[in-house]
From TrEMBL:
Keywords: Coiled coil
Protein known as: HTH cro/C1-type domain-containing protein
Domain HTH cro/C1-type: 38-96
InterPro entries: Cro/C1-type_HTH (IPR001387), Lambda_DNA-bd_dom_sf (IPR010982)
Length: 108
């Protein structure tokens, strides 16, 4: 007998029913997007964390921390580190400021 598992969207809908979850999700959206881009780029480059670490001149565990730093908020990688990561994959780091039409113009 197979069990039907809820989809990501169904789970997200359920989670958003709890107070504060949707706001927290939106707050972390940029970090999750960057993390997903980093991991997708590494996979597209066909490189393992160990290979990236060797190219960056750091330990494999440091690449693991880098790829999870945004998720766990334990570390804040520098722009230099993100550039080295991108270069190890044959990419370049590009940062952009874009208008956020969903937010007011005041900083919180």
């Amino acid at each position: 007998m197979t069990r039907n598992r809820p989809t990501h969207e169904e789970l997200k809908h359920l989670a958003f029913q709890k107070e504060g979850v949707e706001a927290l999700y939106e707050e972390l959206e940029e970090e999750y997007h960057l993390l997903a881009e980093m991991i997708q780029a590494r996979h597209a480059a066909g490189k393992t964390q160990a290979e990236v670490a060797e190219l960056m001149g750091i330990k494999t565990s440091a690449v693991g921390r880098l790829e999870s730093a945004l998720f766990y908020k334990k570390h804040s990688p520098t722009l230099t580190t993100l550039k080295k990561y991108a270069h190890a994959l044959g990419y370049r780091l590009e940062l952009n400021l874009v208008p956020d039409h969903n937010k007011s113009n005041t900083a919180s």
